[in-house]
Each structure stands twice: as structure tokens, then as C-alpha cells.
Please model this.
Amino acid sequence: MFFRKSRNNIMQPDPPLPSAAQQLGCFLGCSWERVDPSLSCAQITELFLTELAAGASSGTHPMLITADDLLLETIEENCEDNGGAAAYREKLMQLPCDRLPDWMKNPMKPYAGTFKPQPPLNELICVTPNNLRQGEELMLVRLPVSEPCRVFAHLPFGSWNDCPDAEDLIAVCKDWQTRYSAVPAMLSHDILQMYVPQPLTDPAEAMRLASEHFTFCEDLSQGIGTISALADSLIGSHFWFFWWD
Model:
């Protein structure tokens, strides 16, 4: 706790620092609001879908964000490494995104392994009062982008360990947006979730996409285990989940 002197020379504590959500909202400079973490995952999913429909006519794209100091630190460092927030945002907004990065052009091959049938994912995996960590806040932001893949121009996530940088995130998400109408939906300091309006139904296509998902986020192996297990879960799923260690 830091203290300062008031006019009558009495020591008083400094005002509290803005929360992570307040700092991120100020950085983004767009419409945002806190989301009650006591809402169920189904209610938060419905909130996102409602905002997604509204944004289609207003030129914005909604993102649910679990704001914390780690996410803020990542965004700040990525901006500092690329000429500052305004310059980096402009660069990412103008970046051609019709070419996949080289490392995505040869997706991983399915490998041997047994797996249990996986249920489809049709709700966002959300923070709740039971798993919300100290300093975390759930917020909804409305980003001024006509292409959903460009949300990473405003939220330059990634570029640590095996997590792709913002440039590659834009390119990969643009490819999936074109092929599957998939859009970013939720972000934390180590998780990205995407929404797809028409889930896959073809097992062969699901296997191909699962290979792409593992190439994009190999740390999925620590959770769902195998490409075959992921392919099984993609059939019928409206949401895709990525996590980087």
C-alpha cells in the first residue's frame, strides 16, 4: 500500500489502481462492459450469440475476455516490440491475410492411440465464481472490425512459447473464417475459443480439421489427447477450444 500526504499533511492511502478490465477497456477504446461471472456458461454463450447478431449490422465484433494482468502484460509487450500500440494496430489492420504461415501448410498427421468418444462442445467454457482467480474479470468488448479475424489487431495476443503471434492468428483465423465461417469468441491469457455456426458432420473433414487444430495448437495433446479424439469432438460442435501452456 502506498501513501500520500493530503492538504492537512495527514498520510492517506493512494487511490486503488484500475482493474485489469478497466485498463484493457481504456486500451481498446471501444464499447465494453463487465459480465456477471455468476451467469451460467449457457447464459454467457447466449449473450455472445446475441451480441454477434447485433454486431453484424453495426460493424463490430464481440469478444468475451477474461482480463487479468498476464493478458495485459502480453498485449503491452507485443505492442512495445512492434513500434507501439497505434502503429502495431494499423499494421495488423492492413496486413494481407490470404496466405497461411508456412508451418500451417503441412498439418500434423493422425497418430496411433485409443480415445474415448467426446461430446460436442456447444457452450463456451467460461469462468465462474468457483474458478475465477484473483484479479480476473470477465468482460464483453465490441471491437470495430468488419472482419472478425482482425480482432487480433486490437488484441495482439500470443507470441509466447508455442502460441502463434498476432499476424499468424489473423491469417489462420481468416482461413477458417473463409472455409467454416468460424469467428473468435472468447479470449484469456492462454485460451482462445472460436464459434462456428454450422458444425462439421463429415468424419473425414473433421479429421482434416483436427490435424490443423493440432498444428495450430499442439498443446491440445495435453488435454484431449489425440487428433482422432479431437476429430470426434468437432462433429456437431459449435465451439472450438485452444489452450497454450
Notes: The chain has eight helices and eight strands. The longest strand covers residues 61-67. Residues 19-243 form one domain.
